[in-house]
DNA sequence: CGACGCCTTGATCAACTTCAAATTTTGTGG
DNA sequence: CCACAAAATTTGAAGTTGATCAAGGCGTCG
């Protein structure tokens, strides 16, 4: 939030009831994430209550949702786009330690301060609300804590998968692993009807490097290599075609 | 559990009441972890119920508590010792993705299969019980889920710290980071009364290498280097003295 | 157009790995 | 307690991978 350029704060209006949506607040009624993520576990009344403290917004690439070591005072529900979580060392070295997609919730339930910065990788749509609002809800809805626990557990399993990647995989394997991971999280719409799988990489090369523990140059060279052996095709720098996803997975485990 | 040699299964006896310990089962009354970890949140009655399904045991180094991809059908509460969590690739490359100390609980609440193997790094004392027993308790004691959630969150923060280490730190920084981490988790008793901090490294060099994403040779060379610059002193291969912990932390962040 | 951001490519270099012993430590049986 | 074998650790020399340094190309936006 620190410097995120905002637009479209529909939630500033007083939420109204909508007879066609059985008491669901209007802000939520049209929301794609209404039935996913944490919102899916809430009753219309709870949704209404939460929406009173909610600000919907659009965040442009590179803008921050939260800063490392800052007080963890708000949460953001991702409605669309990709958020990168990163850690920075005193001398400027950086490592991306997580990627979050809709409908993930950015922010943790316990602990006073953020362990990492959260910033928009792509343009991101979010619903932001204060920590107190979520804490109140969690007390009311035990299911919610379970849902958040599941997300934390999923993130942990991912982080450990990446530890294996960072500790033991070659540059080629890392880039293939990354593309495979993005492929699995990409919107299947994008290649509906197309012969080969096609998707947009939500990160630029320097982000990919910071994610994979490599330099931009090495990442670039691995893209070139994967292109040369026919494992991928680059439509543009960001748009990739993968003729054989299984092949990509194989490369991600054995060079 | 798969091949852990066991001894001392006190829990096989029918738990009895002990008037000096207000209904706490005898197995638990003498347990050092009684008031820590998950047991700390349980009432004597719940403790009694849990202890009926519990087997206390000792596991020797290198023995497995759980295998990667195996059904996640039991949990182990660590009473003493260190457990390593590791992932293995098809070609034999290995990465340690977590270390657990008493009174951590090994095993996750959701998900059918283990994401990694868990094995004893040192000799380990555990209380093991079936998944069903914990699931039942969690439904009864909402606080318990919260406690487990906190542990998961702590493990996640740790895993991300290690991603930074694996992705961006030099060999020297990694070894210093590792020693600093172990120092913080070491039993303060060990150097009570001594002038300098002293502790036992719970892993052998090959484990350290698998944890740091290095080779044993490189780990060994870094130990030599840290010794030469006076950052550590090796009493034995496993026993380390750290004259200045802050110095070690500095090295862990800037070579 | 021209400047800037982003990406690619090439040449050189340093860090870490690999391969190969040597050395120390540990465990076992006499 | 010693002797011996096995395991773990250290050390050295050579080889690779990926980093660093240095241009150059491409696309976009004022």
Summarize the structure.
The structure is a homodimer of 255-residue chains. Chain A has 255 residues and is of the alpha+beta class.
Give your account of this protein's structure.
Two copies of one chain form a homodimer. Helix content of chain A is 37%, strand content 21%. Chain A has 255 residues and is an alpha+beta fold. Chain A has two domains: 157 residues, Jelly Rolls (Sandwich), CATH 2.60.120; 86 residues, Winged helix-like DNA-binding domain superfamily/Winged helix DNA-binding domain (Arc Repressor Mutant, subunit A), CATH 1.10.10. In chain A, the strands form three sheets. The first copy, chain A, has a four-stranded antiparallel β-sheet with strand order 1-8-3-6. In chain A, strand 4 and strand 5 form a beta hairpin. Chain B binds a DNA duplex (30 and 30 nucleotides) through helix 7.
Q: What ranges of chain A have pLDDT less than 50 throughout 5 or more consecutive residues?
A: 1-14
Strand content of chain A: 15-25%
Ends distance of chain A: 40 Å
Oligomer state equals homodimer
H and E string of chain A: HHEEEEEEEEHHHEHHEEH
| Sheet with the most strands, sense and barrel status of chain A | 4 strands, antiparallel
Number of domains of chain A: 2
The outline of chain A comes out as globular
Count every helix of chain A, treating DSSP H or I runs of 4 or more residues as helices: 8
> CATH H level of the largest domain in chain A: which superfamily?
Jelly Rolls
Main sheet: strand order of chain A: 1-8-3-6
Structural class of chain A: alpha+beta
At the fold tier of CATH, the topology name of the largest domain in chain A is Jelly Rolls
Reported CATH architecture of the largest domain in chain A: Sandwich
> Over the alpha carbons, how many angstroms does the gyration radius of chain A reach?
20 Å
**Helical percent range of chain A?**
25-40%
Largest interface (C-beta under 8 Å): A-B, 42 and 42 residues
